[in-house]
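hi! just following up on the protien thing from before. the input was this:
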Amino acid sequence: MKKMDFSSFLMSLETSFMIFVVLILLFTWLSRKPGNMVVYYPNRILKGMDPMESGLGSRNPFTWIWRRYLV
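and the predicted 3d structure came back as:
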């Protein structure tokens, strides 16, 4: 079994990171669309409650990071 050289490792790491960033951006974009509230807040909608009331936290992962580490 051959050892992976360092440049191949870095290329693999970079590719994985780019895929991760694209998926996070896609999640952020989709979670902000009003039509997707039934996906993110189904229990509140079924109970007849407003999905955005009572100070619910954001579904945006960037907001989670911001609140956790920078505030």
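The CA atoms of residues 15 and 47 lie 43 Å apart.
The radius of gyration is 18 Å.
cheers
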